[in-house]
Amino acid sequence: MAKQIGLFGFGVVGQGYYSIAKKHQQNLLPKTIVVQNKKKERNPELSFSFDPNDILDSNYDIGLELISDPEEAYHIVSTLLKSGKKVVSANKKMLAAHLPEFLQLEKEFGGSLLYEAAAAAGIPIITTLDTHFAGDQIEKLEGILNGSSNYILSQLFEEGLTFEEALKLAQDNGFAEADPTLDINGSDVSSKLAILILHAFGKFVPEKDIPTLGVQHIRKEDVILAQKLGLKIKLIAKAQITADGITAFILPSLVNPKNALYWVENEYNSVKIISRNLGEQFYKGKGAGSLPTGASVYADLTKSERGYSYSYDKLNGELPKTFQPKSGNLEVIVRAHSENAIKSLVPEAEIVFNQEAYWSVATISAQLLQEKQTLIQEEEISIVALNETATKKDVLQALKEEVKVTISLN
Amino acid sequence: MAKQIGLFGFGVVGQGYYSIAKKHQQNLLPKTIVVQNKKKERNPELSFSFDPNDILDSNYDIGLELISDPEEAYHIVSTLLKSGKKVVSANKKMLAAHLPEFLQLEKEFGGSLLYEAAAAAGIPIITTLDTHFAGDQIEKLEGILNGSSNYILSQLFEEGLTFEEALKLAQDNGFAEADPTLDINGSDVSSKLAILILHAFGKFVPEKDIPTLGVQHIRKEDVILAQKLGLKIKLIAKAQITADGITAFILPSLVNPKNALYWVENEYNSVKIISRNLGEQFYKGKGAGSLPTGASVYADLTKSERGYSYSYDKLNGELPKTFQPKSGNLEVIVRAHSENAIKSLVPEAEIVFNQEAYWSVATISAQLLQEKQTLIQEEEISIVALNETATKKDVLQALKEEVKVTISLN
Ligand SMILES: NC(=O)c1ccc[n+]([C@@H]2O[C@H](COP(=O)([O-])OP(=O)(O)OC[C@H]3O[C@@H](n4cnc5c(N)ncnc54)[C@H](OP(=O)(O)O)[C@@H]3O)[C@@H](O)[C@H]2O)c1
Ligand SMILES: NC(=O)c1ccc[n+]([C@@H]2O[C@H](COP(=O)([O-])OP(=O)(O)OC[C@H]3O[C@@H](n4cnc5c(N)ncnc54)[C@H](OP(=O)(O)O)[C@@H]3O)[C@@H](O)[C@H]2O)c1
């Protein structure tokens, strides 16, 4: 017998799922669609409701939570799980905040929760981590997880646009929200990385504990330097196992052409995994958009209907289970508008003046990156990780080639 | 209660699976291991048997078929399916020949058959096609599916080895079999592509109907020409939907650096898919070896144990369901040792003499490629597809730059 499906939200993602179900399998269409805004015009052939309880209180088997309001989304998902229902969600912010509680509810009430679209939307990375890496030990996970940021970087590198022009184009093309803050400051990426860390390493990490910097301060000067070195800058999210435990960072990073991430352009996302059994695996696909995201939701729905639930294999694994948000050092290029700004971040480092900015190459700790967030934001300091692409010497050399004044050497 | 697992075969793949299960979850270790050779020394702590019926006749829940003998493998898999058992197999040749029958047995007797390791060993491509592309329409699937061939091509391009040296190195490193015929003549790839076509397009295609040429005739001359054009040669397996139906080819092909397949080196495999909902997706991972292949088998086992079976979503899809083995034209570069050889393949084409060989650029049909197999093998004719990388003019230009004699122009 066909399952009864209730849908919350009919925006970009909800409509994507709907159009796929309509083309493919009518019995996976929703019986009721809950939305919020009573003034919007709606297709009169669909049965819309403005009361979540029309689904929550009724005999629906599967609930699809695809709304943009994290609080209401939390209410919907937890209520459905408490009734032992099958749930699909795409709400990364909300999921990254509540996954441990949801896992508990699944166990207690026998429901299930799938959320493939919540990280790297179109790429089946969560299902793959959950099934294909069963029995494996992941050493490193690295990815490009925000389509807007990657689109902006591609436009800076390939088309020579300014940051402002690139951001505007991303918005015009629907790759960045009207308020792009969460996209460009890396916050969207930290939600996704938190979810991936749970599936890859079996540890729940609050996203605020992941040292994060987005692309918001990347400007032409950084692009010119990278190009001089034959490299590109990508916003890389990285988590790995070290002797101390799991470390993670999100930082603009130099990448070279030998790295598959170098070739990921525009709105594409990608994930690279190094594991004991499988060696290196690499996945690339669309990270946002109505059909790619709707397709992941639809795939979750078909899996859910057939009884699939995440095994959370890694939660029972043999890995180091501590998370070390303050451990780990990174070699980075720092650029600021004033000598003082750079000195407050890396007091000891050699400073070079180039392209009307102050630069240095220094080793900074994750702890410092966390502690100095206010300074970094206020002074619009650009930080780019070297990421095994170039040596400090190469970078300093490239900076000095057109050097105007060498400010200090201590 | 722990399921009873029976294992057939304890070679490269069987031992890979075994070592993963041993590290991860002891209740997924086999109770009995059936092998063939009574003279081999075996670990006395494991319970080996030389009689398949020790598993086939008994109360085992899941059978892992990992032997190298296709006939016996067919017997094992069909017997298990007829008893409604869960089965995992890695035997691409055997599967490509018998899948329709096995699907029938699954339906009739309620068992299930998973075979992730049979195509692109370490990459979870079959599960992904089966779950993630549910409700999607795949337009094109393209991949590098044989690690030995790709390893040889990498050695030709990156290290400047001769074909014979590269093949020897592939064998020494365990990437090619002692008898490498099936690897280098593309036959291994056609088994894999036949399996992938079933999951991607919902159509069973006998592998012999796929026009196929391997890397066996690729020599330094071809490499030099490709490098002059700034391109590489990869052995590309390709299937796509055209107005007439599904077409498929396996041919050495030029690829350019913008194509992710260009960067797939050595023993790695990869698959690129273009679909209506997801746009372009790209996966890369190891295509052979004890742990990568064992990991796919182990993942299948955990999925199987949890009740997962393939949905064969595309078998019920909306796609053109005819296969057109003889349709489709390809622009190719042809190289032969004699003018006559080249004329027997492409009688009308302009012939250029370069690097002591006869060349031409021509459009050939899939039908011709099939019909002329004997000629191609006997004359060791090299055929490389242009694959949207360079124009006929570019290639002829490159060939003529160092031209010694232009033989004929008609
Ligand atoms: N867009 C993407 O590419 C993408 C990719 C991955 C994940 N996601 C996630 O998917 C979710 C949905 O994103 P979207 O892009 O589809 O958003 P959207 O286009 O802004 O649509 C949001 C929908 O949610 C409904 N809604 C908002 N608040 C509600 C409430 N309190 N009660 C009931 N309905 C409410 C809206 O109702 P009205 O129709 O009445 O306005 C609208 O239908 C978000 O969690 C997002 O992070 C999006
Ligand atoms: N190697 C790879 O990387 C790879 C990758 C993907 C798929 N595969 C597929 O996986 C399968 C196994 O390959 P492999 O590389 O592991 O082969 P292998 O190393 O040659 O081992 C073959 C095993 O099968 C056993 N065997 C052979 N014939 C048998 C028979 N009639 N009855 C019972 N046992 C028999 C052998 O027994 P003895 O121990 O007594 O010799 C041996 O244990 C093949 O179908 C292959 O195509 C392999």
Automatic annotation (TrEMBL), chains A, B:
Q: Which reaction does it catalyse?
A: L-homoserine + NADP(+) = L-aspartate 4-semialdehyde + NADPH + H(+)
- Keywords (A to Z) from UniProt: Amino-acid biosynthesis, Methionine biosynthesis, NADP, Oxidoreductase, Threonine biosynthesis
Pfam families, per the entry: Homoserine_dh
Pathway where it operates: Amino-acid biosynthesis; L-methionine biosynthesis via de novo pathway; L-homoserine from L-aspartate: step 3/3; Amino-acid biosynthesis; L-threonine biosynthesis; L-threonine from L-aspartate: step 3/5
Q: Which GO terms describe its molecular function?
A: homoserine dehydrogenase activity
Enzyme Commission designation: 1.1.1.3
Keyword Acyltransferase annotated:
no
Domain (Homoserine dehydrogenase catalytic): residue spans on this chain: 124-301
Q: Give the family from UniProt.
A: Belongs to the homoserine dehydrogenase family.
The record's NCBIfam families line, in alphabetical order, gives: PRK06349.1 (NF004976)
The protein depicted here goes by the name: Homoserine dehydrogenase
Q: What organism does this protein naturally occur in?
A: Echinicola arenosa
